[in-house]
Amino acid sequence: MTPTIELDGLEVQLGGRTILQGLTGVLKSRAIGLLGPNGAGKSTLINTLLGFHTPSKGRVRVLGLDSHANSKELRSLVGYMPENDAFIAKMSGVRFVRYMAEISGLPPEQAMERAHEAFVYVGLGEARYRPVGTYSLGMKQLAKLAQAIAHGPKVLILDEPTNGMDPPARKRLIELIREIREASDICLLLSSHLLRDVEETCDEVLILRNGKIASICNLVEERRANRKFLELETLGAEANFTSALEGLGCECAVFTSGRIKVVMPDSVEIREVFKVAADRGVQIRRMNHRRDSLEDIFLSAMEQTGAPDGRL
Amino acid sequence: MAVYKRRYNSYTGSLTPQWSRFFVLTRFAFMDLFKSRFFVILLILCIVPCLFSAGYIFVANNKTLQLLMQVRSEAADFFKVENQYFIIIMVVQAEAAFLLNCWVGPVLIAGDLTNGALPLFLSRPFTRADYVFGKLAVLGLLLSAVTWVPCLLLFALQAGLAHDGWIWSHLWMVVPIVLCSAIWILALSLLSLAVSAWVKLRIVATGVTFIIFFIPAGLGEMFNAIMGTHWGALLNFSYMFRIILERGFRDPYRMLGRMARNEIPISAAWASLICLCVLSLVILNARLRARETVRG
Q: N or C terminus of chain A: which is more exposed, having fewer CB within 10 Å?
């Protein structure tokens, strides 16, 4: 299977400054998140993928297509939602999307049909005949998403898609992105400051720091690896409770205030823990599937690369 | 992604040929332009002189009508359709094209740049050259409709009415009609696109387009007066166009009195307009960039 993104010693210089420094890595998942502090090089990487910047060294391939040598073929597969304002203020929403779809090569009738569909799909059906310039910030974000998907791209590049959106609108947009991902074989590259956005939509994360790769992390595997790690808050737990759990094959670490951390083998189910507790009259007040959150992974990546605070 | 299903589907239909996509820009720009009543009135006004010219040609070739109008035989020379007549028509239409260009040109690119829409065009299989070509085609078609196209129609009308071998003795005029119009259209279009890419406000862009034609001309005259030369006229682009026009129509001395005194070679006039085009292209190249701000 062709990797979604292949970075091969990618270096990009802008204005005499090296922005991306020797990025090397392979990202195979269909939904890739791009994380990093301000100035880490996320937008530069996206612009390089789109062929807007020429690599000074190395190369980057998307679905096997070189971003520089095959930029036209690559762009014909891409739907791009930029971070900043990108619209034509006087055009009605649906006409704007139709315009963009026609430039992508759709015949006028199909472009018009797809523009209407895309607008209704993103939830702006009622506002489609209004000039884009009159839209609220959240609506403009949705209009940008509509133009990015109207021509049916194979790769969807979203740069800070939830910027400036209120929580319900953000939730709706994240749902849409997940729906798009599930409903087709589209590949997704999402750059965001919000770890939660990436966590909810992506399977793999590329973390950048000062133009270098801080970490490439497969979230699916991380989730799987941490699935059997429990945090319990108990009342009335005695040594016999932990020894009973250990008898099942679990490893236990007991802390103060009845807190117990349990690593369970694959053969043990959670209901067996409940059964042991019930047999010994132990109350389980709280139970967490403790797993490394993306925040932990991100902060760990920042620490490893010597970041002072890891602040986004 | 049908509306009623509200589900995303990728597109699997046919695509238009790559080479034809620049014309989408042209088509959309024309749709926007023809929504403006002012533009339609301006376009009609630009064509009105050609209608008068057609009437003139008709009278010039109709002896009966001249008799009815009681035109005296010595005044009949006034109704003469030769190269000088076409120079006058071309000059009038070139000025009309200039006005039309000042109205249409400034909105073409500024609207896309104001709200950062350019990356949306260039993230598609669509190059900067396609973009400029698409916008240039708007002005090219529009200015053609008021310059060489009506002039050729007038030429055809005269050829049709004159009969006695007029067309064969004047066929060479087709070349200057087309060539002179082409350089004027190219210079005007590229200049107004460059201004549109540089200045985002329409009214300011229109003003700048006017200024570029009048201020350098004034500076050139000052240069001439101070230095006692005539080379400052190279900055007067309208004047350079007239030199090309009159040399092209093989009439360098009768229509343009100044020419006899201040001899500027036609090659210099061509070079002046070509330099204007190159400068405009340099500005377009600098301004039409897809990349966004790189922070940090």
A: N
